[in-house]
Amino acid sequence: MYLHIGNNKTIRLRDIVGIFDADTATQSAVTKKYLSDASRRGEVNTASEELPKSFILYRSKGKFEIYFSQISVSTLQKRMSGM
């Protein structure tokens, strides 16, 4: 099964590690550093040019990647529970 995260981008459910609220999660210094380091390594992608509401941490080809999405955490969770 796949989760649609916006702009025709989907991620396999079994690869998803976590879904996080972009506003609250990025207040932590640890999370900011992780996202900054991941960005420098080229592991951060965006599903839209809009302001992100969430980000998804997932496994891709043996490494962790991050996708920012304009879709809220609650909507993504509803999509997952409806599968």
Q: What is the topology?
A:
Layout: E1 2-6, E2 9-12, E3 16-21, H1 22-25, H2 29-40, E4 44-46, E5 54-60, E6 63-69, H3 73-81
Parallel strand pairs: 4-6
Antiparallel strand pairs: 1-2, 3-5, 5-6
What can be said about this structure in brief?
This protein is 30% helix and 39% strand. By secondary structure, the chain is of the alpha+beta class.
Number of helices: 3
Structural class: alpha+beta
Total strands:
6
N-to-C order of helices and strands: EEEHHEEEH
Strand percentage, roughly? 35-45%
Major sheet? 4 strands, mixed
Taking all residues together, what is the mean pLDDT?
A: 93
| Count of distinct structural domains | 1
Strand order of the largest sheet: 3-5-6-4
**Rg, nearest Å:** 12 Å
Shape: globular
Helix content: 25-40%
User: Unreliable stretches, pLDDT < 50, 5 or more residues?
Assistant: none
What is the terminal separation in angstroms? 8 Å
Describe this structure in words.
With 83 residues, the chain is an alpha+beta fold. It has one domain. Helix content is 30%, strand content 39%. It has three helices and six strands. The chain has helices at residues 22-25, 29-40, 73-81; strands spanning 2-6, 9-12, 16-21, 44-46, 54-60, 63-69. The longest helix is centred in the middle third of the chain and has 12 residues, at 29-40. It is globular.
